[in-house]
Amino acid sequence: MKKLTVAIDGPAGAGKSTVAKRLAKELGYTYMDTGAMYRAFAWKVKESAIDLENEATLMAALRETRIELLEEPGGLKVMLDGVDVTTQIRAPEMSQSASKVSALRPVRERMVELQRAMGARGGVVAEGRDIGTVVFPRAEVKIFLTASSEERAQRRFDELRGQGKEVTLEETLEEMNERDRRDEQRTLAPLRKADDAIAIDSTRHSVDEVMAIVRREIEKKMFISN
After folding, report:
1. pLDDT > 60? residue 226
2. Which of 83, 96, 97, 132 lies deepest, with the highest CB count within 10 Å?
3. How far apart are CA 165 and CA 142, in angstroms?
4. What is the distance between the alpha carbons of residues 25 and 2, in angstroms, rounded to a whole number?
5. Which residues, in sequence order, are CB contacts of 99 under 8 Å at separation 6+?
6. Where in the sequence is the domain holding 67, given as residue range(s)?
């Protein structure tokens, strides 16, 4: 049976990770968290004090960058140049940093190169903001998952507080709205729904309901491809 490429796009807090992880596990596919890759490079920029204004320095850093996404019993492990940075890249400030570096053409081109190499044989569930439009424009299944900004901020706030982070709901909502604006308005690969993507608003749907919609779409594509 042919293995499909499933692209799940949408803004932060829409539930992409939850759906993509469950789906990948059910299908026996590889889960690709592209956002984690941008976070990893943003972490490298911060730790190595890479000058983003110096193109030569930036290009050299990108050429040397190796990112691996490893499935572990406890979840996805993110390896940056052989070092586990899974915990570090989830700090709240890395969200904004990742959004900023992802707007740089050399960074995006390198990450897309790495992502396409990972998904070259199909059998992947990739989530991000430009998967169906840029990374895998020929993906058999494309989902655009969204939710209201208030709902997404509440989910992110609950997640951060559960991790022991001292944040307020107002700060989280402001950060969410700022990132939405940056991702939607950037010139390079802006966040948008692919023309052939199925739009799902998770504000009005439970995770199980979203999963049911996505499964039906995958079953249709599998029937057609076989």
Report:
1. no
2. 132
3. 34
4. 17
5. 38, 179, 182, 183
6. 5-225
Question: Cα–Cα distance between 124 and 115 in angstroms, integer?
Answer: 10
Q: What percent of the chain has pLDDT over 90?
A: 73
Question: What CATH number is associated with residue 70?
Answer: 3.40.50.300
Dihedral of the alpha carbons of 2, 142, 27, 163, in degrees to the nearest 10: 150
Decide the pairing of beta strands 141-146 and 5-9.
parallel
User: Tokens in use for 12?
Assistant: 């932060």
CA distances from 44 to 62, 83, 226 (A): 10, 11, 43
What integer pLDDT is reported at residue 10 of this predicted model? 95
pTM for the model stands at 0.86
Please choose, from the candidates 54, 27, 57, 52, the residue with its C-alpha nearest in 3D space to the C-alpha of residue 42.
52
pLDDT tens digits, residue range 175-204? Answer: 889 988 988 988 888 899 999 999 999 998
Q: What's at 158, amino acid-wise?
A: D
Q: Would you state the pLDDT for residue 45?
A: 96
With beta carbons less than 8 A apart as the criterion, state whether 36 and 102 touch. no
Instruction: Record the tokens describing residue 122, joined without a space.
Output: 């199909």
Residue pair 149/176 in contact (Cβ under 8 Å)? The answer is yes
